[in-house]
Amino acid sequence: MNLTQGYNVLLKEEEPPEEGFAKMSIIEFLREIRRGQELPKRMAIYGLEILLLTSGESRATTKFIRNMFRENNRLFREKGYTFLFIPRKELYVNRDVYLRAEDKKANVSSLFGLRLQIKEVGLYYADFVF
What we know:
130 residues; 9 strands; alpha/beta
């Protein structure tokens, strides 16, 4: 897996992240960002699908997360962070990348300002500039 600085998203959970990645839940990750805490340089983030698919209003949740990322992109870029989002539900692609569970779906591409692009088989990527 060729992970680089920026947002990396696995198509599906296949294997644990490479060595050197700190593991964190999406809630803990967002909380640390909100508090301005120093983050590990390489992070594997779990639970994105739970947050988006169980939220009563997935569009509002997506917008909240996207805005939080946007406000911190400059800092993320300057500090050289590599974030790996590992959904436990398989993503599917239909022009954009989505998470789906039963009758609910959540647009993952919009979290990253619609800049999420395929990097290699099973791995999507978005840089910190949007």
